[in-house]
Design the sequence.
């Protein structure tokens, strides 16, 4: 199969934007957050993409067995995938920066927030999505409970207190939940807590332990939550495929030639990957459990659009520009020009047509080489990062955890923090899902935690 460089560059850009292309009879199906500009480009190249996808389908059909859902065994235990294993083990205090969960914390506050309606909507939500009912068994396997115990939203009515005292109580609970590390053996592994305040407003705290779902999954179920909050009679789309089916399908995929070829690529790549940059760090052992602090800066929408347009005009994505900025700062303060970054990304392998519709932990990461010695300008260095990222994505069938294991095997590195500097980019949510979220109270705070045996020392998160 031959492919033009122009089409290859276009497909690689789509993959960096977490867009997945698939073939459905005579149509190109695009899954993921799609902008109008990209949609126009896809329409213009439809015939090229169809030819490419048909060729790929012919080549892969003999190598990959189709994934068949097994609804009769949907609620039986199944293995943690490699990323989940890392999250599960990394919670152990034996690791530096342990005792911390991979975690999202959200606060919703508004006079119009109806906490009784929140309870009803969330109940329907967790009954619909298997992985919101999941636990980890003592033997290290996971299981989605067929029927979860009854759950009620705890609501503290603080209207009898002075406003300052009520806010103190809210702040204390907020601080507790913002660093909550759930016992994954017990359901639920998430916590919601409501407050009614003296000024008439209501607050909802949401502590979501992300061992069982990735960023795209959170977008899916939060959009569903918003739809249910707006209309409790909303019918959510059902899927035959389960996350259990997918995880077992991944195990079969690792026996294919495509996986062997990608693993061989990474086994060669790790022999030349540099170490992470070194920044001064305080020892956390002497100060008790680690506390991750979130610093945020919001770029105004007009500035964001201008940056995105300027990047596109120079043939690079905004995500790669931001990776370049992050790398420049790390390089300056570490005094290192050649190092490796940890780049989390969504990675739903197209094993079944419903893969993009289910909730589960599909995330992985890439070990991205950065060389600030390459090129004379910042733009040159960004283009070099983009080229390397695109080349690595051609071999994304291998998980980041496996790549890290191969890197350690080659370098002799121990089990401590190996690549602690993380750049997370969450693609923009568009279309119906965005409209759904716009219909509910906008969260005023989102916090991310990134612990595993390679826990993040610094996690730079970009959310459009």
Sequence:
């Amino acid at each position: 199969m031959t492919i033009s460089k122009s089409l290859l560059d276009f497909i690689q850009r789509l993959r960096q934007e977490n867009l997945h292309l698939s073939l459905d009879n005579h149509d190109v199906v695009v899954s993921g957050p799609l902008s109008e500009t990209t949609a126009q480009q896809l329409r213009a190249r439809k015939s090229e993409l169809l030819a490419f996808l048909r060729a790929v389908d012919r080549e892969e059909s003999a190598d990959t067995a189709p994934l068949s859902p097994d609804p009769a065994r949907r609620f039986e235990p199944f293995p943690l995938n490699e990323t989940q294993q890392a999250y599960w083990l990394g919670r152990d205090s034996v690791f530096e920066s342990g005792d911390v969960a991979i975690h999202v914390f959200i606060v919703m506050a508004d006079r119009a927030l109806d906490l009784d309606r929140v309870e009803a909507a969330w109940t329907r939500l967790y009954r619909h999505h298997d992985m919101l009912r999941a636990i980890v068994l003592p033997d290290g396997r996971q299981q989605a409970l067929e029927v979860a115990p009854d759950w009620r939203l705890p609501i503290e009515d603080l209207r009898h207190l002075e406003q300052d005292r009520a806010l103190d109580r809210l702040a204390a609970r907020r601080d507790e939940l913002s660093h909550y590390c759930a016992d994954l053996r017990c359901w639920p592994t998430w916590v919601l807590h409501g407050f009614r305040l003296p000024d008439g407003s209501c607050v909802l705290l949401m502590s979501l332990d992300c061992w069982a779902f990735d960023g795209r999954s959170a977008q899916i179920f939060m959009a569903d939550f918003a739809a249910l909050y707006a209309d409790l009679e909303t019918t959510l789309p059902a899927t035959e495929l389960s996350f259990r089916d997918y995880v077992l399908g991944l195990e079969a995929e690792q026996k294919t030639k495509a996986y062997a070829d990608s693993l061989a690529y990474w086994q060669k790549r790790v022999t030349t990957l540099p170490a992470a940059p070194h920044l001064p760090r305080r020892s956390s052992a002497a100060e008790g459990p680690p506390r991750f602090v979130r610093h945020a800066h919001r770029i105004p929408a007009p500035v964001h659009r201008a940056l995105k347009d300027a990047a596109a005009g120079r043939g690079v994505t905004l995500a790669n520009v931001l990776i370049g900025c992050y790398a420049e700062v790390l390089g300056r303060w570490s005094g290192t020009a050649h190092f490796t970054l940890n780049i989390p990304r969504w990675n739903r392998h197209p094993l079944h047509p419903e893969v993009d519709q289910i909730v589960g932990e599909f995330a992985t990461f890439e070990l991205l080489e950065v060389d600030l010695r390459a090129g004379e300008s910042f733009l040159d260095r960004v283009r070099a990062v983009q080229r390397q990222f695109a080349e690595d994505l051609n071999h994304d069938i291998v998980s980041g955890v496996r790549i890290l294991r191969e890197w350690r095997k080659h370098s002799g590195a121990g089990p401590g923090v190996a690549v602690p500097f993380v750049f997370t980019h969450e693609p923009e949510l568009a279309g119906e899902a965005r409209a759904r979220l716009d219909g509910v109270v906008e969260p005023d705070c989102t916090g991310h935690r990134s612990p595993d045996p390679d826990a993040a020392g610094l996690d730079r998160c970009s959310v459009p």
About this structure: The two ends are 36 Å apart (CA to CA). Residues 318-334 form the longest helix (17 residues).
